[in-house]
Amino acid sequence: MNKKCQGCGAILQDQESNEVGYVRNLKYSLCERCFRIKNYSEYKVIVQDNEEYIKILKEVDKTNDLVLFVVDVFFMGANLEKIRTYINNPMLLVLTKRDVLPYSVSDQKIKDYMHNLSMNFVDVELISSYKNYNFDQLYEKILRYKKGPNVYVIGFTNAGKSTMINKILYHYSDNKMSLTTSIMPSTTLNSIEVKVNQDLTLIDTPGLVVDRSLINFVDGSMLSKIMPQKEIKPITYQIKGNQMIKISDFLILDIPMGNDLTIYMSNNLEINRYYKGLNTSGYREEKMKIKADRDLVFEGLGFIHFKEECTITVYTKYDMKIYTRKKLI
Ligand SMILES: Nc1nc2c(ncn2[C@@H]2O[C@H](COP(=O)(O)OP(=O)(O)O)[C@@H](O)[C@H]2O)c(=O)[nH]1
Ligand SMILES: [Mg+2]
Description:
The structure is a single chain. Helix content is 18%, strand content 27%. The chain is an alpha+beta fold. A six-stranded mixed beta sheet has the order 3-2-1-4-6-5, sandwiched between helices. A hairpin with a 3-residue loop joins strand 8 and strand 9. The longest helix is centred in the N-terminal third of the chain and has 12 residues, at 50-61. The chain is globular. The mean pLDDT is 93. Bound molecules: guanosine-5'-diphosphate (GDP) and magnesium ion.
């Protein structure tokens, strides 16, 4: 049988140094790319397409095993429901990166929000792998809802699936294996079986690439600014005159007078308000109508809550998906 890399799941090979799964010697269990990510944080971008992932999901659908649907609570994604078109398995929703949302927001509020999506979850758990938050509850729920020894871990890329599995191993297993994780999307390349114990095997998977997410367009140094590493401090502006808000180099918002808005984005981004017109050449322009008390979501960047109904002009540099939703917080 072909041996898989223990970090990313790629099939190991010693022939083509530029291809996925390359190792100098087949006796190693980590491919060269994983070795470099783990030891030098050197990332080699691999473009994954969703067709391969959908095949994996269809295989999961043939089983009746429990699925952990892992979702980044901050970068939730527009179409979570889409996953249900591929799999009907019993599904436990695991919201990760709780540490990023303001602590003042209650867990119950977030859980209720997700239950209202009517996606038929057996349960919802909110965790943080960084803070070791709620792992006992999560583990207890996995044991309670699993059908057999296999439990699949699915979701979008970068949701924190592999990091979560590493934490489960650390807390509840003697298995010393450690999956490769990184800030870049598509770190995990193939499904990998991770044996927690005799009765439980978690199967990590690469993840769906989020359509039109900012994270698909930027490099590693920008990604580390976009992806919050700790609790977000929301920024509230009262717009008194016609004002513009500029977010790093890729987003400008032109907002009419008399609005209150709160920005939920990484505090490592440069966010500034301007009272005069900014030069918007090189940006794409889009008018957006937002109803009162809703979020405007920028896929892969964050969201802005608007108190009043308004029409704003959004200038962007990338083909990032922008949409409104019921307010999260
Ligand atoms: N703030 C925060 N970041 C996390 C957490 N878990 C994972 N991450 C980060 O999210 C990124 C993607 O994680 P990874 O496990 O590779 O995601 P995967 O593609 O779903 O397997 C990495 O930069 C992780 O360090 C968490 O609990 N909190
Ligand atoms: Mg992964």
